[in-house]
Each structure stands twice: as C-alpha cells, then as structure tokens.
Write a structure and sequence with these properties.
The protein is α/β, with parallel strands linked by helices. The chain contains 16 helices and 16 strands. The structure holds nicotinamide-adenine-dinucleotide.
Length: 481
C-alpha cells in the first residue's frame, strides 16, 4: 500500500525565488504587451530619474554614509551623483541618434537592395550591483538599460542595506513595478536572481562571483556583461614628473579609502626613484588628509571583515620582513571608526596575500623594476587588469606600454578618469570582465542589433536560382573574382 504524498512547505528561500520569478514574468508580459517605448518616453523616464536624484542627494549621502560608517559627502557627490547625472544628460542628448536605424551598404553584389540595423530593447534586464559605490554602480547600468528601452530588475548589495532600501524606495516611487523592481537580499538571493531567464544579466562585483553568475546564466543562454575587479597596476616610468604622479596615484588609491574597482592596486617604479616616491607619498597623503579618525573627507572601510582582511595584509608583510610605512598623521585611525591608515608596503614579495588578491583598501604595494620590459612582463604574467596607469613623458614608451599590455582601460599621467568619459567603453577583459557600458556602448549592450535586408523591386538575386546555366556561370565569375 503506497502512502499518500506528503505536502512539503516551501522554504523561505524557495518562496523568495518564486516571488522574484513572478516579478520577471510580470515584467516580460508587460514588455510584450507594450513593446519598445518611444524616444520621448525614454527621455522622460531618464529626466524623472535625474530630477529625483537631485532632489534626494541629501538622503542618498546620509544612507551611504550610515552604511560605511563614514563616507565623505564630497566623494558621494563626485563619484556617485555626478557620474549618474552625467550619464543621464549624455543619454538624453544622444538617444535619438543611437536609436535611429543605421543604413549599411549591401555591397555591389546585392545592389540595389538595401540593409539596415535596427536597435531593439532585449526585454527584461537583471542588474546585480556591489557595495563599494552602491548607488552609481546600480544606477548607471539602469540608465543604459532604460535608454535602450528595457525593463529592469535590480539586486543591490546586502553589505550596504540602507542604500539598497533607499534605492528601492526611490525607484518604486518613480516607476511601476512592471518597469523597474528592486530585489533586496544577500548572496543566496543573488544566486536565485542569477538563475532567472533574463534577456540580459549585468553583473558588477568580484571575479569569483562573476564566474558563478556566468555559469547560472549559461543554463538559460542569457547573455551576460561582467564588470569585475582585479589588480590594476600603475607603471611609473623613468621620466615621470614624480610629484604629479604621486598626487594622482595617492588620490586614486585613497578615494573611497581604496574601495574602488579602478583604484591603482600596486605601483611599479624604477629602483632609483623609490625613496623620492615614498617621501612624496607620505607628504601628499598628509596634505590630503591632515587627520583621519575625525576627518569627514576620509572614508571608512565598509565592514569589520574587510578591516580584518586589510589589517592582515600589513601584518603578514611585517612578519615576513617587508618594510611597512603607515601614514597615520595623528595616530587617529581608530578601529571603532573602521578607518585604516594609508599604508605603503615597500618591495613586498609576490607570495604575500597582498600581491595575490585585489587589495580594495588604502594599502599600496610598491615594487621596483629595471627597465620597462621587466614591468611589462610582470603585468603580462598576471590576469588581465581592469585598468592600467602609466606615468611618463616619452610618447614612444607610453605607446609601447599601451600596445604590449592588455587591460580593460587605461589612463596616462592620471588615474580613474577613463571611467568618467561617457564616450569611452568601460569594461574589463579576461578576469576583469566581459563586455562594456557607458554612453553608446551601454545602449548597445542592452539592445539587440537586428540586421534587416530589404529587397528591391529590381531583384538581381533571382539570376542565382536554378536551373544553373550560362548566366549563373557569368555571375559566379563576377562574385568569385
Ligand atoms: P561580490 O561579488 O561579493 O558581490 C556583488 C553582488 O553579487 C552583491 O549584490 C551580492 O549579493 C551578489 N552575489 C553574491 N553571490 C552571488 C551569487 N552566487 N550569484 C549572484 N549574485 C551573487 O562583490 P562586492 O564585494 O560587492 O564588490 C567588490 C568587487 O566588485 C571587487 O572585486 C571590485 O573590483 C568589483 N567591482 C567591479 C567594478 C567594475 O565596474 N568592474 C566596480 C565596482 C566593483
């Protein structure tokens, strides 16, 4: 006698997964009903978002700062609000041109037919975002997806919960859930999210999680964009103007206390310039941040786990005999503020953790090289970085470094600012990512490029049909000339 089936109640996670799947189905049904939004509707949506961001900057800055412990208000305005508003301005200005079907030549062989590329929204896009710029890295992909006419489901990071709540509230107040929805939750929710059959999945985060996201997306053949991390090197050449180079490197390193995907991770420097570099780095840092603990300009580390991870880098280096320079002007980097003093590690061996992992904090290893070839070989022996920075005056050497290294992006005599140019593609390569966005590249990432062939009334291709004879032979002579 068989026993009756036992009804098993779904776990909380299964129920959550079912809820987010229902959201996706609702968005997809709405997309199929309404079709691609017109230019004016997209521009209006973007304007609505920009206005709300401007109105809510205070609330946003407070939420991020509460999440971090302290997040510099100026950094939030410069690195979260400005890029979002700039990307909206740029998209609104150029969207008509981006959306316009592009005529392309069919080639002499198929004349007088015509051909064009149509840009269509793909449908429903999933966006998974990290905590380090918890607003900007969620909203910039959202802007690109909206500009391309898609509906969006957003899963922000659980490490910045107040910002995630703020975002969810802001977006729910502006857009119907069938157009934009926010899903709050941790890594497990993220994993369930990544398993959904989106039309495109856009992930920003670590390389390790990026790998899992791509595996999950493969099950549905969902195309992915992966904006990942890694160790971005900074080459200082023999002829670099050191004071400017050091100021730019320390600024890039200490913005958001180093918790920046395109922060310079480590420096490669000619040996004879080492002591000058260290002295300048200490002086520059003290000028940027005369104090640390009570200084609102110096951002905290996001949580205790990351504090411990960063402290371990310096501890392991010290234990192994590496020279460690802690730039702690007022001895005020108290652990209760989660502020870690800017720290230089001089000539750390490559087996240390700090040289194997992405640092993501205010710790700067400095290694010396003999000859540019050695620096290039060092970079090329490692995973392809998201950014590469070069400081030097000679254009020939600069071009050689750019030609012989492969990185997501690069900046010369500067750090970070390749990110701020809407007309440059932003994205990694290899371990630092797949695909790109910003400006028109973002629009294209979230659009399907449909190739359309339009036959003319004068259709010469009919001459290619069987039965084959003299005419086809003549045509073939021409085609295969
Ligand atoms: P993370 O990979 O730990 O988390 C990112 C997001 O993924 C979070 O929302 C998290 O909840 C979610 N998640 C976790 N496990 C998941 C899973 N199995 N499936 C789906 N989603 C999952 O990254 P993080 O610590 O938040 O961010 C720091 C990393 O992000 C660094 O490596 C940094 O370099 C990188 N980053 C890259 C860029 C870029 O533009 N390329 C920008 C910022 C940060």
């Amino acid at each position: 006698m068989s026993s009756p089936p036992i009804a098993v109640a779904p776990t909380a996670m299964e129920a959550a997964a079912a809820r987010i799947r229902a959201m996706l189905e609702a968005q997809r049904a709405a997309f199929l009903r309404a079709g691609a939004p017109a230019l004016q509707a997209r521009r209006a949506d973007l304007q609505k978002l920009a206005d709300a961001v401007r109105r809510n900057t205070n609330r946003l800055a407070a939420a991020i700062s509460a999440d971090f412990g302290n997040r510099s208000r100026h950094e939030t305005e410069l690195a979260e609000v400005f890029p979002v508003l700039a990307s909206i301005r740029h998209a609104r200005r150029h969207l008509a041109r981006w959306m316009r079907p592009k005529r392309v030549s069919v080639g002499i062989e198929l004349m007088p037919a015509r051909a064009r590329i149509l840009y269509q929204p793909v449908g429903v896009v999933g966006i998974i975002s990290p905590w380090n710029y918890p607003f900007q890295l969620a909203v910039m992909p959202l802007v690109a997806a909206l500009a391309a006419g898609n509906r969006v489901m957003l899963k922000p990071s659980e490490l910045t919960p107040r910002t995630a709540e703020f975002l969810a509230g802001l977006l729910a107040g502006l857009f119907p859930a069938e157009q934009i929805t926010t899903v709050l939750g941790d890594a497990e929710v993220g994993a369930a999210f990544a398993r959904l059959p989106f039309d495109h999945l856009f992930f920003t985060g670590s390389t390790a999680v990026g790998r899992k996201v791509m595996q999950a997306a493969a099950e549905n053949l969902t195309p992915v964009t992966l904006e990942l991390g890694g160790k971005s090197p900074c080459i200082v050449a023999d002829d670099a103007a050191l004071p400017e180079a050091v100021a730019s490197i320390m600024h890039g390193k200490l913005l958001n206390a180093g918790q920046t995907c395109v922060a310079p991770d480590y420096v490669l420097l000619p040996k004879h310039r080492l002591e000058e570099f260290v002295a300048l780095a200490v002086a520059t840092t003290q000028k940027f941040y005369p104090t640390l603990a009570a200084n609102p300009d110096y951002t905290s580390i996001v949580d205790d786990r990351h504090c411990r991870r960063l402290a371990q880098y310096a501890a392991e280096a010290k234990a192994g005999g590496t020279r460690v320079v802690e730039i702690d002007p007022n001895r005020g980097a108290r652990p209760d503020t989660r502020k870690i003093a800017p720290t230089l590690l001089i000539e750390p061996p490559d087996n240390l953790l700090v040289m194997r992992e992405e640092i993501f904090g205010p710790v700067l290893p400095i290694k010396t090289y003999h000859g540019l070839n050695e620096a290039i070989d060092y970079i090329n022996a490692r995973p392809r970085p998201l950014a590469l920075y070069y400081f030097g005056a000679d254009r020939g050497k600069r071009d050689e470094v750019l030609r012989r290294t492969i990185s997501g992006g690069a900046a010369v005599n500067a750090t970070l600012f390749q990110f701020a140019v809407e007309r440059l593609p932003f994205g990694g390569i290899g371990a630092s990512g797949l695909g790109a966005y910003h400006g028109e590249f973002g629009f294209q990432t979230f659009s399907h490029r449909k190739g359309v062939f339009l036959q003319s009334r004068i259709d010469l291709t009919r001459l290619l049909r069987p039965p084959f004879g003299r005419v086809v032979n003549l045509m073939l002579k021409f085609l295969n000339r």
